Amino acid sequence: MNLASTAASAVRNLLIAGTALALVATGAVVQAQAAADEAAVRFGARADVLDISLSPSGNKIVFVSAGPGHTEVVNVIDFTAEAAVKAVLTNGEKLVDIDSCEWASEVRLLCQFSGMGGADGGILIPFDRLIALNADSTNIRMISQRDSPRALGFNQFGGDVLALDVAGEEGMILMTRNFIPEMTVGTRLGNEKRGLGAELVDIANGRSRIREQPDDATLRYIADEQGRVRVKMQAQRDSNGNLIGTFRYFFRTPDNNSWAPLESLTIDGQPTERMVPLAVDSTRNVAFGFVTKNGYDAIAEVALDGTGIGKLLMARGDVDVDGLIRIGRKNRVVGASYATEKREIAYFDPAMAKLAADLGKALPDQPLVNIVGASADEQKLLLIASSDTQPGMVYLFDRKARALEPLLPLRSRLEGQAMGQMKPVSYPAADGTQIPAYLTLPPGSDGKGLPAIVLPHGGPAARDEWGFDWLVQYFTAKGYAVLQPN
Asked: How far apart are CA 269 and CA 421, in angstroms?
């Protein structure tokens, strides 16, 4: 048994112990629930893996798991140590969740919290914050800007990481900061800056310095893989200073700090009204983003050299292409995805396309395979494979050794549970329009004489997708047929 398998076994034991601890911690309440509806306890439990990340070397992972009650636990696994599973951080606050943790370096973690906080008047508003800590749980630091008692407002957002690696700035990350002006009466230290800026932040001590001066109009920045801000989005206002609901995008060339509008674009020789940038590749000096093609969102790339010349990378005539696929610490763009009856990924990178095809053959019963982490050299990958009847399994894939190791299940409580197949169907509406839907029947059922539940999705810009759905599977375990109309 190799180290990854040993660690996987240890993780499984940890998850089982966590389940037992949760049952003990909640005592008679959980026992009463289990007696009334044992399936509700198992299906309704939060996933064992809420978020996961691979270290730059590929020798360690960090994952956030659901602990007893409302807690979350941050766990680190070191594949170079025998069965090294260590809980390094626990959150027991009911109004705060640990959303994610990722590796800022081989020894330092970045974890994001979100929750509900009080503001003037006692109103609860959402907020998030970012902290850093060592993988051995020491040296915990607030990375988000600390709130000032002089601030003339509540800072909801702790900032987004724009780049984990910044050229020429070892030990620093690039992240956004929302500047809140402060009272200046009786002090010379009050901050008068306002709006969204970008800062270089030392992950060891939290010290920062401004990289992009804040302004009230900017809502978003996009950095390239070198940690240089190349694109920004600004909200437009009327002559009275009121927002009018439109946005403009600006870009920089590699060797100039001045901004130019990202407009007057041509995609494959055709004028294009707009592009919504998503990512920048500095090596090729292009931006990737959404454009409109025959009424649907498509993915294109545009040169960031002032010419506005670009080309279409992926478009569909039936659905939107709705997401970029990026891997690694530098968020390298390798493909795009869309959803018809099932979620599909088309890779621009030939090596990734071949890898995806090989993984599909190796995991024939789990057709949804997502790359959720990569080492710095992209030779080791973290994968999550799942399907309509499989809640999901995390794998570690070594591209050089061609070795695929199962690490841990996303929902250990449901291992061995029979699941209903989620089948695409359609039915006519009152006016004859065919409505696409998914129908899930209890395992082994022919569907005759069953009670049924119609489970519509939220909206308006939403849809259900094929894949594992714990609520649908709970209902089928109770003997219902479930119809999900799109």
From this structure: 45
Question: What number of other Cβ atoms are within 10 A of residue 58's Cβ?
Answer: 21
pTM over cut 0.85 = yes
Contact 185, 149 (CB under 8 A): no
Chain centroid, CA 433 distance in Å: 35
User: How far separated are the first and last CA of the chain, in Å rounded?
Assistant: 46
**What is the rounded distance in angstroms from the CA atom of residue 349 to the CA atom of residue 336?**
11
Q: Are 54 and 397 in contact (CB under 8 A)?
A: no
Lowest mean pLDDT among 81-90, 194-203, 256-265, 292-301: 81-90
Measure the CA–CA gap between 336 and 298, rounded to whole angstroms: 9
Q: How far apart are CA 467 and CA 366, in angstroms?
A: 10
pLDDT digits (tens, 9 = 90+) for 177-236: 998 877 666 556 666 788 899 999 999 999 999 999 998 899 999 999 999 999 999 999
H or E segment to which residue 310 belongs: strand 309-314
310 near 303, Cβ under 8 Å? Answer: yes
Which helix (DSSP H) or strand (DSSP E) does residue 13 occupy? helix 3-44
Taking the C-alpha atoms of 352, 357, 362 and 366 in order, what is their torsion angle to the nearest 10 degrees? 100
Alpha carbons 330 and 332: distance in angstroms, whole number: 6
For residue 285, give the DSSP letter: T
Question: How far is residue 230's CA from residue 419's CA, in Å, rounded to a whole number?
Answer: 47
Q: Pairing mode, if any, of strands 260-261 and 243-251?
A: antiparallel
* Dist. CA 480–CA 90, nearest whole Å: 38
Distance of CA 204 to the CA centre of its chain: 24
**How are strands ordered across the β-sheet holding 286-293?**
270-272, 265-267, 309-314, 296-303, 286-293, 276-281
Q: Which amino acid is at 184?
A: T
Q: Is 283 exposed, middle or buried (0-12, 13-18, 19+ CB in 10 A)?
A: exposed
Please name the helix (run of DSSP H) or strand (run of DSSP E) that holds residue 362, with its range, or none: helix 350-362
Amino acid letter for position 81:
A
> In angstroms, rounded to a whole number, what is the distance separating the alpha carbons of residues 67 and 50?
11
Residue 376 is encoded by which pair of tokens? 């710095």
Amino acid at 209: R
